[in-house]
Amino acid sequence: xxxxxxxxxxxxxxxxxxxxxxxxxxxxxxxxxxxxxxxxxxxxxxxxxxxxxxxxxxxxxxxxxxxxxxxxxxxxxxxxxxxxxxxxxxxxxxxxxxxxxxxxxxxxxxxxxxxxxxxxxxxxxxxxxxxxxxxxxxxxxxxxxxxxxxxxxxxxxxxxxxxxxxxxxxxxxxxxxxxxxxxxxxxxxxxxxxxxxxxxxxxxxxxxxxxxxxxxxxxxxxxxxxxxxxxxxxxxxxxxxxxxxxxxxxxxxxxxxxxxxxxxxxxxxxxxxxxxxxxxxxxxxxxxxxxxxxxxxxxxxxxxxxxxxxxxxxxxxxxxxxxxxxxxxxxxxxxxxxxxxxxxxxxxxxxxxxxxxxxxxxxxxxxx
Length: 368
Ligand code: G6P
Prior knowledge:
It catalyses: D-fructose 6-phosphate + L-glutamine = D-glucosamine 6-phosphate + L-glutamate. 46% of the residues lie in helices and 16% in strands. By secondary structure, the chain is of the alpha/beta class. The longest helix has 36 residues, at 185-220. The strands form 3 sheets. A 5-stranded parallel sheet has the order 4-3-5-6-7, sandwiched between helices. The radius of gyration is 20 Å and the shape is globular. Bound molecules: 6-O-phosphono-alpha-D-glucopyranose. 6-O-phosphono-alpha-D-glucopyranose (G6P) is lined by residues 58-61, 105-107, 110, 113, 156-158, 361, 363-365. The site of 6-O-phosphono-alpha-D-glucopyranose has 16 residues, from helix 3.
């Protein structure tokens, strides 16, 4: 990896476009493409006999962890306890020594994540680290290292590290499912096949969506508040979208589980606050569409991020609709990350902020 911006205006833009290659590289470490199965995950964590998995991380890494909770529970039937590291470390979480703990960190140096790791280690848990920097403190203090192999990430707002974390966590959850006998070898092959398709799909999406996103970003840059909604794994992605936007454009944004709309945020809906609805045509689609109707009925403007089937199935008026290809639920979070990242990026560019080094933020937070 060469550390320069190449043809890009910012490292963040470069890192967004590097994702297909970075993910291919990361997956190559975990997947046997010829056999279509997960390889090399064992490390010293024996998923087969675990009673639970504790996950702790900060920022974007936490949201990758929250996404993986859905996968570990669904594919490996493994109960997951997850929290932001700054809470986890002080919560006095009762831990069972028959559980394992996973810490997700791009830098491997985040102070709160490291403190959570030490808490779990003292409780006798096996420790796994999903890190980008293999020589980091978090990696060194772990029993098993799961590198995400994203290459150096310079932009403060995480992009390729996030999708590489997701890809590695998806592979781990599938591998854990096989070890635990909760998914069949056939399902493993199917899921691994979907993972393997990701880089190609991502390249196609990246080549296509930029013009739509740029137009939309111009409108978004005039807004004061933005609400993101999603269900299932689109819920952590809604939070990641809001985080990315506020980090680099300084526009106030919130990510909510779409089902929580009527428990609060619906009071904020008016024509000034765009609502970004992340809704692939999955088993949650109809429910999310009914939330969209609630937004539309109150004069809210909708930015609909969906797939081809989803676009065909809804005729609600929107401010913009971004249509992605139909993909399996297992890889939706990675594919749907792309418009989320590009939207934040182009909005920030319109606003003229310091995209790679946004005010008040640090790439790695090594103090509490
Ligand atoms: C900082 C960075 C974020 C990152 C978080 C966790 O807040 O600005 O981009 O997600 O720390 O960092 P880590 O290195 O532990 O993933």
